[in-house]
């Protein structure tokens, strides 16, 4: 595990909805979290409501009753702190592979943001302790199974609340797995004894799936622009035509994402001698294959899907999700806002778009390797075909990933399994949708990396193994960045490390930055 990098920046909660960049800053880069004075005031106000209800003889859900199907049992005052402890201990029931640190930190920040609205009824000390965990880099250990995406991401959030109590296992800032009590003590933090309503308030929300959605959106902005760069390089490397990307042709179908993608491809191909040479020769192909010609249509549809997902995420970040919730006029009301359907749907929708973008990328790569379709390149881009196999098996790797992405595109949100003795009889499976989208994004990163690695090799072979000005300036910049990490064409060598180097260049934005460096404006 990587040590968190504290950027020296901070995110203040309780002044309005979280921005997407705030979640990325805290989850990935260790930005500090602060609670605004307004949030403390709001929490004190709603806590007064809870304490008044706790003194009431009438049963109030989450304050003086059991939970879920056990809500019919009223709990006497002497057992209510035990009730909250028991809730957290019993619900911290995850299993399976450990969830990535950035997901849990995003989940914790989203829950803390809701606490800071003052709509949950927790004491400020609870929110301050939660902020203390984040700022100390203490991350609860959570297994991948345990949330059905309804009644909150229950098991993941319960593991976080358990750490707040000084129980369970956590990762420290340097990645060591230790008991929570030990980590709290080392950080100078005190365990919290939860009071009425507070345990429930810590576990009722769509925070985990929202965190995964927000991180995925950030990743996909990078990857979809990178996919445009990859498509442009493949068009150039396969001696295709740029005419189809003309603005007036794209305007005939005014899908906004399509126009953005086409504009990116035009910008990357601008100034390409290889493209211009095809226009001045004899007979040329009337039309390129769909994987080249229709790249803006597919990439653009993915961009439009991403825009819809951003709208859903923005609404969710502006929400105060808890059950029951303290309303602005001081009522404690049960509700169904914890249901993850809105988030689950778009997580699944993005997985479909990811699979299709990757599928098209693999088809472009395959064209480079078939001498019948590569327009003069060696079979499989091999240095000495027959003796060498070139990128033959790199395409197999792509194909295996694309096949997996198609399975991951099967929606999780259409499934539901009743729970809690049929009280919770319809659930969203949004947490599962988020986990599979994360795996899909990793797959897309690898597929694009192989396409870029392959197109760079093909262009080097067309130029006699040297990066020359026959490529467009933006393509030349990408090829140069690739060659700084991966050697150019030659006899077969160990290919896996080269694929990994290309993956890292895609994932950290280096190749996109290289293209941007040669353009008047950054790609969108």
UniProtKB/TrEMBL annotation:
It is found in: Cytoplasm. The keyword Lyase applies. Pathway: Amino-acid degradation; L-histidine degradation into L-glutamate; N-formimidoyl-L-glutamate from L-histidine: step 1/3. The lineage of its organism: Bacteria, Bacillati, Actinomycetota, Actinomycetes, Micrococcales. GO terms for molecular function: histidine ammonia-lyase activity. It holds the Pfam family Lyase_aromatic. Keywords: Histidine metabolism, Lyase. Its main location: cytoplasm. Belongs to the PAL/histidase family. It catalyses: L-histidine = trans-urocanate + NH4(+). It comes from the Bacteria. InterPro entries: Aromatic_Lyase, Fumarase/histidase_N, HutH, L-Aspartase-like, Phe/His_NH3-lyase_AS. The keyword Lyase applies. This is Histidine ammonia-lyase. One of its GO terms (biological process) is L-histidine catabolic process. It is an enzyme of class 4 (lyase). GO terms for cellular component: cytoplasm. Its EC number is 4.3.1.3.
């Amino acid at each position: 595990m990587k040590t968190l990098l504290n950027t020296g920046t901070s995110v203040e909660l309780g002044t309005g909805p979280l921005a997407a960049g705030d979640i990325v800053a805290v989850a990935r880069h260790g930005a500090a979290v602060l609670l605004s004075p307004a949030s403390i005031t709001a929490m004190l106000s709603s806590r007064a409501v809870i304490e008044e209800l706790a003194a009431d003889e009438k049963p109030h859900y989450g304050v003086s009753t059991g939970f879920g199907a056990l809500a019919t049992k009223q709990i006497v005052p002497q057992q209510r702190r035990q009730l909250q402890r028991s809730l957290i201990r019993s619900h911290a029931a995850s299993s399976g592979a450990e969830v990535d640190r950035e997901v849990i930190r995003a989940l914790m920040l989203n829950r803390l943001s809701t606490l800071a609205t003052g709509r949950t009824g927790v004491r400020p000390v609870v929110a301050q302790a939660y902020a203390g965990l984040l700022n100390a880099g203490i991350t609860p250990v959570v297994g991948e199974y345990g949330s059905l995406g309804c009644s909150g991401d229950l098991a993941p959030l319960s593991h976080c609340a358990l750490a707040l109590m000084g129980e369970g296992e956590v990762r420290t800032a340097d990645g060591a797995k230790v008991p929570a009590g030990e980590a709290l003590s080392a950080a100078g933090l005190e365990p919290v004894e939860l009071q009425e309503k507070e345990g429930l308030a810590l576990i009722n929300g769509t925070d985990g799936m929202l965190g995964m959605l927000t991180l995925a959106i950030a990743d996909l902005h990078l990857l979809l622009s990178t996919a445009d760069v990859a498509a442009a390089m493949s068009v150039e490397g396969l001696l295709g035509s740029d005419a189809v990307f003309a603005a007036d042709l794209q305007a005939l179908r005014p899908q906004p994402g399509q126009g953005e993608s086409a504009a990116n491809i035009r910008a990357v191909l601008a100034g390409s001698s290889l493209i211009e040479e095809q226009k001045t020769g004899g007979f040329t192909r009337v039309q390129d294959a769909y994987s080249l010609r229709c790249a803006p249509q597919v990439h653009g549809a993915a961009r439009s899907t991403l825009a819809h997902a951003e709208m859903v995420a923005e609404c969710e970040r502006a929400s105060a999700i808890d059950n029951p919730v303290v309303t602005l006029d001081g009522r404690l009301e049960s509700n169904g806002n914890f249901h993850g359907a809105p988030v689950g749907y778009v997580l699944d929708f993005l997985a479909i778009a990811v699979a299709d973008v990757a599928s098209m990328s693999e088809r472009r790569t395959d064209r480079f390797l078939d001498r019948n379709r590569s327009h003069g390149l060696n079979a499989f881009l091999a240095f000495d075909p027959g003796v060498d196999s070139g990128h033959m098996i790199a395409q197999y790797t792509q194909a295996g990933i694309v096949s997996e992405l198609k399975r991951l595109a099967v929606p999780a949100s259409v499934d539901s399994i009743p729970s809690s003795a049929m009280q919770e009889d319809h659930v969203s499976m949004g947490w599962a949708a988020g986990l599979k989208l994360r795996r899909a994004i990793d797959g897309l990163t690898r597929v694009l990396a192989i396409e870029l690695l392959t197109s760079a090799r093909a262009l080097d072979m067309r130029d006699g193994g040297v990066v020359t000005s026959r490529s467009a300036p933006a393509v030349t910049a990408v090829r140069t960045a690739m060659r700084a990490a991966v050697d150019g064409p030659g006899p077969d060598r160990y290919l896996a490390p080269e694929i990994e180097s290309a993956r890292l260049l895609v994932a950290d934005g280096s190749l996109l930055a290289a293209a941007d460096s040669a353009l008047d404006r950054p790609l969108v």
